[in-house]
Amino acid sequence: MISVVVVTYNALPWIERCLESVRGHETIVVDHGSTDGTVAFVRERFPDARVIEQENKGFSGGNNAGMRAANGRYFLLLNSDAWVVGDGLERLAAFADEHPDAAVVGPRLSNEDGTLQRSVRADPTLWRLATEYLFIRKLAPRSRLLNPLYAGGFAHDEMREVDWLYGAALLVRRDAADAVGLLDESFFMFSEETDWMFRFRLAGWKVYFFPGAEVVHVGGASHGGRMYVENLRGHLRFLAKHRGLREAERARRLLLAALRLRGLLFRGERGRIYREGARFLSSGDTRSLLS
After folding, report:
1. Which of 69, 154, 167, 203 is deepest in the core (most CB within 10 A)?
2. CB 42 within 8 A of CB 64
3. Distance (Å, rounded) from C-alpha 287 to C-alpha 15?
């Protein structure tokens, strides 16, 4: 049995297509205070779905609430702006059944126009963050050396064991989650899946990318692009937790320098977001920013 968990916040533009794609499976919708009628729509249009309403506890807190209420052997954590194509969910579960060491299996993610949405990631390090925030990866986006964070050179066309996967659609084995624990709720949004899959791998489980299943993901709709600071905080929290405060502080200084440069190079909304990120990173050391 597969239990689908969808966390919503003002999800009306996409939630119907999302839930329609998993109809027939136990579905739990965790709403974080929608004001656009999402809850009423789900209850009317999808009466078999269980709706849990709670205060906004972020990606981790929402998915954890759904998983605690679920009954399946597998959880599918599915963004509210994503939908499964065809029998993709059954394909993910069949792959997991064939790989009993798999804690997490992720599908091929596609944009609405059918193009690839790169979802395979490597664990963050100072060098890997530098290749992203200093635009080094732009020099050779298909290079594993210069674009390691996004698995440069990997065409997402074959099964692969990976460090971690972008969390728009993740099939998670209940037994693995029971053994390792659920998502760390100190991560409000961003890097929580990085931390979770790192912990799975430390415990001997594996994370797989499986292109035999497809999910379309709109991207950005679930948080409206307003969470850039949380993305930065997620990097620091992951490094502090797994590499120590000194390494996280080095990352803070690297990111601060990169965003100050970006804030000078870019105008408009993009430049404003970078300058806001730089203000956050300059407002204290890593310990204080994570407290």
Report:
1. 167
2. no
3. 38
